[in-house]
């Protein structure tokens, strides 16, 4: 019980500093180290097993961080860096913008405003698989789709609510959180995506779109004052002007961001080819092919070589932000486990009559609360999901029943937090309050969350 009490105090401390806008990595590292130190001080457990120990339990604290860096940077970290670098490269050459512009073109021809709104939600959630930044993708849609929705007669806040939730499910083989989730349950990312994320994700996206159709239409009618000021905001107009400066590219460039997924799915579904295509290989092939296309298009080797710099910079950015966050979160989780807090929590839950499914709801609630407080789905997910395999084993359920809902809900809850980057960016571009925007996203996201959990239980329990 002492370990659980210490854990509660430390978690509250973490929440306090994250709310004060402290970077998540040093806060999580510090919290994990403090918990491991207190584990040794009070004799609550060991830090590392004998085979991994340095011989000094105090040095084992730092050794656990070293081992986490070694294990994560080599495999998971490399996948995250390659995909992140590829995404930056696509942005820099204008391929991401081309993908969005071509994809939304048919929607502009439809006349029913709320049908277009719902279709924007569906299309956006598919396009989000190929653009890794939720806030960046949200801003891109504010430039391209927001003016269309507003001029069709949708209120500004309804249009923003849909755009802010286009990355809400967070599915796809390119997401760092999805890659980590797959690794935790012992799967490659593509089988995890196809077997688990696709069936649940499709139902979640459908629920989100249908909810937006009815909720936004009802609230627009109920609050006619929110229909005022239909002119596109100055912020969006300024972003449109910036977008005009983006490089003009051939239409086929819209296919380039999708190349890794196309390659992985094609060879994964056609095993008779004899070729094993993982996400790293597919991403590297796509990068080299894109570089060749850029060279042939511009007939300028120097430009092609300079432009690939966006890829290297993107890799470095992912290492500095995502990979370090994964290791910091594992250190935090290691501290919780070493204190015995998780064992105590599970024992208490079992004594209270909670089964494995009850533990799933407990962890989903923790993820939602933490994401609302921090505004970061990734920070919350990486902090708590490493506990899932241990909790699942002790609760007698498959790890995927914990990992999959946590994976989806950490992204869904982000669209409810007024301090999430995507909410701030989208609301700011339209001159709205993030809090007002969160009120508009609440019902659709809540419905999508309920459907997500229900479908997970129906299909996989």
Automatic annotation (TrEMBL):
State a single Gene Ontology molecular function. Answer: C4-dicarboxylate transmembrane transporter activity
Annotated transmembrane regions: 27-49, 114-143, 196-215, 252-269, 281-298, 310-332, 352-373, 379-404, 416-435, 441-460
GO cellular component entries? plasma membrane
Pfam families assigned to the protein according to its UniProt record, in alphabetical order:
DcuC (PF03606)
Q: Could you list this entry's UniProt keywords, alphabetically sorted.
A: Cell membrane, Membrane, Transmembrane, Transmembrane helix, Transport
Q: Which domain of life is it from?
A: Bacteria
Which InterPro entries would you find in this protein's record?
C4_dicarb_anaerob_car, C4_dicarb_anaerob_car-like
Q: Where in the cell is it found?
A: Cell membrane
How does this chain sit within the bilayer?
Answer: Multi-pass membrane protein
Which coarse location class applies to the principal site listed for this UniProt protein? membrane
Family of the protein in this entry = Belongs to the DcuC/DcuD transporter (TC 2.A.61) family.
UniProt cross-references to PANTHER family, sorted A to Z: ANAEROBIC C4-DICARBOXYLATE TRANSPORTER DCUC-RELATED
The name this protein carries in UniProt is C4-dicarboxylate transporter, DcuC family
């Amino acid at each position: 019980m002492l370990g659980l009490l210490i854990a509660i105090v430390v978690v509250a401390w973490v929440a306090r500093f994250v709310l004060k806008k402290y970077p998540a990595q040093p806060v999580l590292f510090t919290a994990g180290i403090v918990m491991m130190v207190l584990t040794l001080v009070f004799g609550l457990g060991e830090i590392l097993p004998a085979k991994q120990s340095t011989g000094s339990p105090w040095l084992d604290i730092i050794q656990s961080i070293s081992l986490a860096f070694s294990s994560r940077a080599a495999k998971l970290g490399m996948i995250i860096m390659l995909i992140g670098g590829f995404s930056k490269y696509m942005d820099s050459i204008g391929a991401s913008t081309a993908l969005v512009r071509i994809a939304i073109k048919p929607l502009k021809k439809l006349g029913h405003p709320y049908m277009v709104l719902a279709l924007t939600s569906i299309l956006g959630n598919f396009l989000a698989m190929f653009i890794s930044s939720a806030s960046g993708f949200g801003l891109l849609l504010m430039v391209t789709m927001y003016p269309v929705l507003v001029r069709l007669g949708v209120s500004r806040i309804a249009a923003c609510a849909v755009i802010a939730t286009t990355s809400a499910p967070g599915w796809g083989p390119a997401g760092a959180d999805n890659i980590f989730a797959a690794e935790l349950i012992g799967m490659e990312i593509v089988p995890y995506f196809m077997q688990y994320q696709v069936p649940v994700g499709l139902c979640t996206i459908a629920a989100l779109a249908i909810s937006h159709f009815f909720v936004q239409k009802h609230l627009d009618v109920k609050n006619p004052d929110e229909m005022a000021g239909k002119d596109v905001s100055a912020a969006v107009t300024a972003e449109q002007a910036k977008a005009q400066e983006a490089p003009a590219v051939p239409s086929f460039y819209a296919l380039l961001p999708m190349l890794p997924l196309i390659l992985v799915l094609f060879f994964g579904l056609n095993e008779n080819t004899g070729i094993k295509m993982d996400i790293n290989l597919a991403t590297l092939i796509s990068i080299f092919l894109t570089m060749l296309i850029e060279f042939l298009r511009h007939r300028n080797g120097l430009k092609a070589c300079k432009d690939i710099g966006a890829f290297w910079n993107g890799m470095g950015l992912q290492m500095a932000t995502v990979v370090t966050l994964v290791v910091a979160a594992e250190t935090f989780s290691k501290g919780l486990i070493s204190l015995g807090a998780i064992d105590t929590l599970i024992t208490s839950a079992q004594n209270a009559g909670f089964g494995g499914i009850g533990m799933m709801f407990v962890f989903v609630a923790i993820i939602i609360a933490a994401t609302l407080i921090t505004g970061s789905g990734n920070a919350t997910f990486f902090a708590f999901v490493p506990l899932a395999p241990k909790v699942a084993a002790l609760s007698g359920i498959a790890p995927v029943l914990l990992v999959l809902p946590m994976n989806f809900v950490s992204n869904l809850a982000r669209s409810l937090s007024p301090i999430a980057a995507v909410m701030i960016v989208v609301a700011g571009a339209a001159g709205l309050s993030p809090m007002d925007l969160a009120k508009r996203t609440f019902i659709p996201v809540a419905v999508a969350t309920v459907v997500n959990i229900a479908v997970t239980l129906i299909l996989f329990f």
